[in-house]
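Our preliminary data section would be incomplete without showing what the modeling component actually yields. Below, a chain of 605 amino acids is followed by its predicted structure, encoded as C-alpha cells that our downstream tools consume directly.
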Amino acid sequence: MNREAFKLVQPTIPELPGIYKFLDEKGTILYVGKAKNLLKRTSSYFLDSKNHSFKTVTMVRHAVRLEFLVVETEHDALLLESTLIKKNQPRYNVSLKDGRSFAFICIKKENFPRIFFTRRVFRDGSEYFGPYTSKYKAEIVLDFVKSLFPLRNCTLNLSPENIKNHKFKVCLEYHVKNCLGPCEGFESKADYDDRIRQIRNILNGNFSEVTAYLQEQMELCASNLDFESAQACKIRLDAFNDYQSKSMVVHPSIGDVDVFSIELEDHEGTVNYLRIIKGALINSHTFELDKNLDQDPEMILAYAILECRELFSSIADEIIVPYPVDLPGERLKITVPQRGDKKKLLELSQKNLRYYILAKKSEIATHTTKPVAVQRILNTLRIDLRMEKDPAHIECFDNSNIQGSHPVAACVVFKNAKPAKNEYRHYHVKTVEGPNDFASMSEIVYRRYKRVLDENKPLPDLIVIDGGKGQLHAAMESIIRLGLENKVKVVGIAKRLEEIYFPNDPVPLYINKKSESLKVIQKIRNEAHRFAILFHRDQRSRSLLSTGLTDIPGIAKKSAETLLKHFGSMARVQEAGLEEMAPLIGRKKADLVYRYFRPEAEEEE
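Predicted structure:
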C-alpha cells in the first residue's frame, strides 16, 4: 500500500481510539495494531518510512487495504488487539503470539465468598471484574482490596452446618489479622457480606473516596520524606486509574451474541455486524444491500441477519438489534436493549456503522473510486477468467417467470466493478411460450446485442449468464448468430456450487470462495436476479389490476391499488358497499366502482 493509496482513505479515519488492520490482496490480515488516535497512528506508516524497521516496510509494501474499528477507550483497543492477534495470528505480529487469556478478579459464588485472581471464566454465577491488561495490575488492585478488607483465602466449605458443628479451626491467617475467622463463627455472615459489597463497589469503579485517600497518603508520605511508601501509594493509584471495570470488547458476563445495527437511506441500506464469542469481540463486518421499496425496515434487517449469520457460520443463540425483528424458523433470543452493557454493545456497532457511512459519503464527495482496488479486482478477474484484457464493462442476464406466466428478463451493467444503474434494461419475452428458460435466454441475448450492433454501441468485455451449461449454450447460440463469439467473453455461473462454465468446456472452474473476482461475479449475478424479480413482480401486479378495477372508466391504478390493499381481493371489492369504499378513494370514484359491479343499482334509479 503506497502513500497515494493511503491518501484516498485518510480523510475517513477518525482521531479516536481503536484498532487497525493491514490486509493483503487475498484479504489475509498481515498486521493488527492498536491506537489512541487512529488517524495519527496509521498516518505514521506513510509519513517517514526511513525510520521504520525492515519488517514494517515489508508489511506496508505487501498490504493493499487498511481497515479500522473504533472503540471507546485506549484500554479497549489494547484488549481488542490482543483478541484479534490470538484469533488471526497475523504474520507480522510474531512477538505478540501468546496463548494467555485475559486477567480477571473473581468474587466466587459461595458462602463467605473468596476473592482471587484468575484467567479462567466459569458460568457458575460467580462475578468477574476486568479484564485487566496485565496480571501485575490486577494483583495490585487485589492486594490493596485485601489490605482494606480482611477476607478468607482458604478453600474450606464454610456451610452453616460445618460452622455450627465446629468442623474447622482458625489458621495462621487469622492470627496475623488477614482473616477474621468465619470458619469458627468469629465473624457473622452479615458483616462479611457487607465487606464484600464494599469491595464490589471498588471493583465496579466506584472508588473516588479510595483514590482521594491514596492521593492524600502519597502526599503525606512525600512530605515526611518517606519516598518508599509514597511510591507504593503511587503504584496503587496508577493501577486504579488504569483499571476499567466495564469493557465492551471483552466482557465476562456476556456469552456468545451477534450484534446488528442498520441505517436505511434512499434505496440502500447499510448493516454493521459485531460477533461476540465467549464475551470477546472477534469480528466486525459492515456491508451494503439494496432496499426494496415494498419492504419494511424490519424485513430488511431480518434478511441481513440471516445472510450474515450464514456467511460467518454463527450459532450464537442471542441477537442484539435496535428494534424487534421476526426470524422465521430460528429459535433465537432477540434482545432490544434499553440500558446496560448490551446497550453499549449496540452503540459500539452503531458508532462503527456511522463511520463507515461517513467514509462512503466522503469517497463520493471527493469522486474517489479507489482506483487501486478497482484495478486489482479487474486484474484478478482477467486472470481467473482467462481473458486477454481487464473486464471493465460487464453485463449479466437473468430470466424470471412463474410456470411460464409473465416471462421477463433483465440485463444489468457493471463498469469498473460498480453498478451502472442507468444502463440497466428489462425485457418482455415475446417469442417463447411456456416455461422455457433456455429459449428465453437465447431470445433476450440476441435482441440485446442485435440492437447494440445496429446502434453501433460498444460491446461489453464480459457477458455473465445466470445459469449453468444449458443457459450458457442457449446464450452462445445467439452470440454465434450475431458473429460475436470472438469479440466478447461469455461465461455462465451456476447457483448451487458457484461453478463458472465456459463455452465448449464441460469442466467448470471453481474460484476460491474468498476471491474478489468471485465476489464481483456473485454480486452482478445477484443484482440481475433482483432486477428481474422486481420487474416480474411489477408485471404480475399490472396484470392483476388491468384485468379488474382499472377496466372501470375513471379508476386509475392508484385507486385500484388502494382498494385491493384494503380489501385483500377482487371478490371482496365486488362485495363492498358504497359507504365502505368512499373513505378510501372518495365518494365519486366509489360510486363508479359500486355501479360497475351492480348494474341493477343504476336501473333501480
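The CA atoms of residues 442 and 475 lie 5 Å apart. The chain has five domains: 3-96, 105-205, 257-364, 375-512, 548-604. Preliminary results of this kind motivate Aim 1 of the renewal.
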